[in-house]
Amino acid sequence: MKPARYPEPIAMLPYIGKWTFIACLIAALAGTASALFLFALDYATNWREAHRWIIWLLPLAGFAVGWVYLKIGRSVEAGNNLLIDEIHDPRNVIPLRMAPLVLIGTVVSHLFGASVGREGTAVQMGGTLADQLTHIFHLRHAERRILLMAGISAGFASVFGTPLAGAIFGLEVLAIGRLRYDAIFPCMLAAIAADQVGMAWGVHHTHYAIGAIAPIAIWSVAAVMAAGVLFGLVGMALATATHAASGCMKRYIPYAPLRPMLGGVAVALAVWWLGTRYIGLGIPVIVESFAQPVAPWDFLGKFAFTVASLGSGFKGGEVTPLFYIGATLGNALAPLLHLPFAMLAGIGFVAVFAGAANTPLASTIMAIELFGPQIGPYAALACVAAYLCSGHCGIYRSQRVGLLKHRLPPVARDRGND
Description:
Layout: H1 8-11, H2 13-50, H3 58-72, H4 80-88, H5 98-112, H6 119-131, H7 133-136, H8 141-160, H9 163-172, E1 175-176, H10 184-200, H11 218-252, H12 258-274, H13 283-291, H14 298-312, H15 319-337, H16 341-357, H17 360-371, H18 376-389, E2 400-401, H19 410-417
Helix pairs in contact: 2-5, 2-6, 2-8, 2-10, 3-5, 3-12, 4-8, 5-6, 6-8, 8-9, 8-10, 9-10, 9-17, 11-14, 11-15, 11-16, 11-18, 12-14, 13-15, 14-15, 15-16, 16-17, 16-18, 17-18
Keywords: Membrane, Transmembrane, Transmembrane helix
Pfam family, one: Voltage_CLC
InterPro entries: Cl-channel_core, ClC, ClC-type_chloride_channel
């Protein structure tokens, strides 16, 4: 091997300087976009709560968003899956119109009362804005992959206020069982800086009071792992149900704008019957699940509203509804498992997300960032259990299987081949 011209630390300086500049630029773009989005989301939510009659216009809003995407948004309709596909197989720079389309579509969804989240919007905006730098800096395919991953990390971090979880999410979400360490520096820097940019714009994130943590003992560990299995099954069920609903709608309703219109009718009628507890982000109910016992069927209500909204084509994300489902389910399980309800609500908050997104490391780190380091061991156990028990499907269709979660023993494989 030919000796290096410079010592390795010195040779790395141009790389570090280049990606420091690019990552900070991505952070400025993604953090600013997320701040604008969060302010618009707060305004839309407050307006809807003050004028609840607007839910009856949800079918028309769904039709309008579906029509706009049909006319000018077909190439970006895949959303997060398009970003993941472009990282795996780089082809074309993502059209800039993805960012304003998903921002407006998500705000409209929340304004009129659909049950959707916000991570999808922030991730798509971060990835889209980052990808516009490809031509400016004349980046190759391998460098473009890193650029997109940094944009994903920056968007996730800035919308939730969890910079380390955002960085790991961008590395972990692409393939089950694999991390992309070639992008670890840009993703870390972009996520941390994007979170700071959001706060500089005045963004405030919700605080969750976790309260007392049960001491580590045989029973508490076993109970948390058992709960983690259930959290994983619920996460898998949500991903499967949402994909099935979407596929069914596309099969039987070929005209795209009619799908969210019919979904809007279903959601509006359900709100008339059950009230507004299960629409929007549901942050007040999540906070409530940390403060007092909630109805044991709340997680089912949010589950059904989310499947109806996302499966019919409303824009947004899946993660905040997953937080709601996990927190309320954990709250309901706490008395059965003899654990503090706030503690198990926090564990469910991240573990259902870990199972549905196949991101146990990012979810564990998110728990530590949101609830403190004391919950770390329990969150890790629950997130890993949820990840292992959620199968190889997930909320992101383009996520690939880098490494199987488990392998059948040789005897079982032989029998399966008979």
